[in-house]
Amino acid sequence: MASVYESPKTRINTSMLSQYINRPVCFVGRLQKVHPTGKSFTLLDGEGKMATVELNDPLDEELSGVVEVIGVVSGKATVTATEYTVLRDDKGKPFDLEVYNEGLKIIHDFPQYYPFEVATSS
What burial letters (b/e) apply to 6-26, b meaning 16+ CB within 10 Å? Predict the structure, then answer.
């Protein structure tokens, strides 16, 4: 399997997790809870649904706010993170997960206009 960095990553929400098992994804959500071991955390998506993110190594920093995760969906419908980024508020304007979720719906409803894979010419 190609590296997560080499593959197109579909942006998804919690309700789409089961459709993307063993595939690279990008997931954005608001941090709800970090496991005491630091090896997993839960995120709340724009629909108000929870998703679990598992890490290979424990967190070495404190997380808060909105987090973007790049990883692969496991068979347990959790995201095994390759990397994550905390999305800081821009000039006091909080990241609007509900608007982001509406954008996800549009992207998935009209794949002909928002392709996730790049066609290569031979």
Answer: eeebbbbbbebbeebeebbbb
